[in-house]
Amino acid sequence: MPRDYYEILGVERNSDSITIKKAYRKLAMQFHPDRNPGSKEAEEKFKEAAEAYEALSNAETRARYDQFGHAGLGGQFGGRGFSDINDIFSSFSDIFGDFFGMGGGQSQARGSARGSHLRYRMEVTLKEVISGVEKEIEYHREENCSECHGSGAAKGTEPVTCPDCQGRGQIVRAQGFFSVATTCPSCRGEGRIIKKPCKVCKGSGREKVARQVKVKIPPGVDTGTQLRLAREGDGGYRGGPFGDLYVEIFVQEDSRFLREENDLISLVEISYLQACLGVNMEVDTPTGTHKLEIPPGSQPGDRIIVGGGGIPSLRGYGRGDLYFEVKVLIPKKLSSEEEKALRDIAGQKFENVREVTGFFGKSKNKGKGFFTN
Length: 373
Prior knowledge:
HSP40/DNAj peptide-binding domain; alpha+beta; 4-stranded mixed sheet; 3-stranded mixed sheet; Helix Hairpins; 373 residues
């Protein structure tokens, strides 16, 4: 079972973002590979802390984790880890740059960089929410050009060092006692110039590629649930890691069922006679049919429960219930036989019912009820 992220960082569950960041910085310094050369244990703790911080530093993922635990992230972080230490440095360069002196502006611009994250909206049915489903999706992502392998230069050629900045990507100019560095206008900070661009990517070094992946949707998701597929986003730059693909779930509406958290509510219509005498009937559920027993004397608004007929918990344990709410249909018109039978019953029970009058106000009701003079 994966460890609690708050426990890993050693913070309380109500800690603010500043406290969480400070706790991570402390652990990162303690287990940094440079301070623990050759220690596999330190490396694992370093990765574990990075995973916990990645989940809790984002308000959205933290809220899902607080409510549903690891299951609420849909495998987004748990067990994923990072491909290597450089992947962590790339993800949290702002933090490591503070206390390890790692790149800022100039080196970051010319060094490796993670690819962009992508989003994909997936529709699922209520039945698929209950059972879980695996679906294959197709989308386009940006990768290094297959012709020039990301260099941007035509096949058989290579980019050359920018003669203006000597490959530094910046031009340094003295202004009095100070030196001001600006991005080189010739190479735009790349430190190199492409004299003969690749014909496929027009010198960009990138191209759009169609990709198919299988997405496993766990039972219990709801509209707005996000699943992360690590490294399925755009390709990295200059050897950097791939971005991630976020699959956002949209549950199709089912007019037969109303969802309240993990419970489902459906309307069942019965006649006034069935309400009085009870009835056994087949009703629809999201996964098939069910024989429902409605007891005699059921009132409008009564709910008949089907235990465990609702939606599974996203956490992986427990399941909601399915409720059928009774709606009694009262006929607007009765046949003469039905009316006579009901009036006889009303007379036997001494019920006060409206008399039916004919022409000239003469009553058609020959019987006398309790309130009849």
